[in-house]
Structures are given as C-alpha cells and as structure tokens.
C-alpha cells in the first residue's frame, strides 16, 4: 500500500494508471477536466479526486503540504503539439511552469518520496533525420510543446542531481488506447480515426482530414504497455535521474495504419487531404534498449493494440 499523486489523473494516460494503481493504493488525482473525463475513472474507495489545475499554486501547495506521497506522476499537460503552436503562452503555463512549481513543492514538503515521474515526449527529438531515436540522440525541439517538454524534463532530472530528489522522466512516443479523448481537433490521430470509423458504422456522414500525404510515420504504443513502462520506471532504483523512451521500437505510416483499420472493419474511410501541419515531424521511431534494460517487454504491436481499441469501443469482436 502506497500513496500516489497523479496529476492529469482523469486524462487518457493518467486515468488508466489511476484505475490500475488505485486497486491497492491510496491515490489523489488532480485534473482540471479540460481533456480528462470523470467517466474514465473507476476508482477504489481510497481515491480522492480534486478538480483543479496544476497551474494553481495554492492548490498544489495545499496538496503537497498536507500529504506524504510515495509516488508522484506528473501527467497533466496540454498534450498537443499543434495546440502549443496556436497558444504558446497558455500551454507553457501547463507544460513548463507547473513542473517547476511541483518540483519546488516536492523539494519543500516531500522528504520521503520514492519517485517523481515526469511525462516528457518524443517531440523533443524534432526533425533531425537519424532514426531510431535514442535518449542520447540530437535534441531539436521545433515547437513550444517540444521546448517546454525538454526544458521541464531537464529540470526534473537536475532536481535529482542537484537536490537528491528521486526523479525519472519518460519520453512518450505516440500513445493510444481506450480512454483517449477524440473530441478535440488536437486529439491523438488514432482516437480521431476510431471515432470516425464508429460514426461511419452508425451510418453518419464522416470525413477524416489527413494532414500531408499520409506517408508520415509514428511509433504508436498501446496504453497497457505504457502503464507497464511507467511502473517499471517508478520502481527501479537504476531509473533515478534518467529519461526513457517509451515506444515499441517499430513505426507505421498513417496511410498504412488507415488501410489496416479499413481491412479490419471491412470499410473504406473517406479521406480529405489537407496541408501538412506546421511543426509536424515526418518520421518518428523509438530505440527502446534503455527501457528494455529495466525488463520492459511491449506486448502489443499496432495490429493487436488497434484491435483491442476497436473491441473496447464495440466496433469489432
Ligand atoms: C504526439 C502526441 C504528443 C507527443 C508526440 C511525441 C497526441 C495528441 N500528441 O504528437 O503529445 O507526445 O506524439 O511524438 O497524442 N493527423 C492527421 N489528421 C488528424 C490528426 C492528426 O493527419 O486529424 C496527423 C498529424 O498531422 C501527424 C500524425 O497524424 O502527422 C500524428 O498526429 P498526433 O497529433 O496524433 O500526434 P503527434 O505525433 O503530433
């Protein structure tokens, strides 16, 4: 039995983690419900949900000063690269300022913490063409989102080197799975696609806009494997002070991904082609050797993961 703070705990990754750990642990969730949803949560009795923003210093100070945590997972973020290009000031508050504030409060109040895990992103690598991306590859952040994630990640790791706080960071590649919210134009592409297929199956007129020619590729990692990674990173002592890629080590082009789902559902999704998004990365794939050293074994290839996602939405059996 331990005590967990999960920021962004009603969001996609946060809620899946919270549902998992709350079976046997005490969990406090902070989420402003900007993208997260209470329906994502199926929590044990020892879980406390606090509606609020991680940019609210008074709230964070209260929570950190009144509780002694074993684990802090800072998963609250504006997770969209494109949104950060549109609203750099607002996204900076959430994606960077909140992290520094949380680190300071942790330094002040959380003397017995076992681990703080920060969610960084593969976006930090930018468009430097060498693939696959290793943790020590060239960093070339191209967007406010990527700059904030990289700066925050470095602060997080330096709080270990400077003050001895047990921190780790994960660089998420493209995470997908059931609790992902497809409602924003900035949502993850697989959640948008599955939403469109669902509407198509129920007879609605739908279209999906593909930004660019669809040859861009991503390392899509299924949520269950991400939870496995987060728990390994949080519990292995050798992970302290270090960042880890979280992906599968394989990538797929969007065109091919859409073909795969078309085939699975025996449908043809109508596609509009739009301009490539500013700041969009062409190809992205993780080298996951460092995470594998912690005994990480991704269980879901893209085909298996998408199938599980489709089943969870009742789109296939
Ligand atoms: C994802 C994550 C980001 C970060 C990064 C790491 C989301 C929302 N973003 O950014 O947080 O961790 O991965 O690599 O999960 N696209 C379309 N049509 C749409 C939506 C997207 O064509 O309606 C394209 C988009 O232009 C891009 C690709 O799909 O080429 C993936 O886009 P995304 O927003 O799902 O994810 P990405 O890689 O920008």
Automatic annotation (TrEMBL):
Pfam families recorded: Epimerase
UniProt record similarity statement: Belongs to the NAD(P)-dependent epimerase/dehydratase family.
PANTHER family: DTDP-D-GLUCOSE 4,6-DEHYDRATASE-RELATED
InterPro entries hit by this protein: Epimerase_deHydtase (IPR001509), NAD(P)-bd_dom_sf (IPR036291)
Gene3D superfamilies from the UniProt entry: NAD(P)-binding Rossmann-like Domain, UDP-galactose 4-epimerase, domain 1
Organism: Candidatus Enterococcus ferrettii
The name this protein goes by in its record: UDP-glucose 4-epimerase
Residue span(s) of domain NAD-dependent epimerase/dehydratase: 5-247
High-level lineage: Bacteria, Bacillati, Bacillota, Bacilli, Lactobacillales
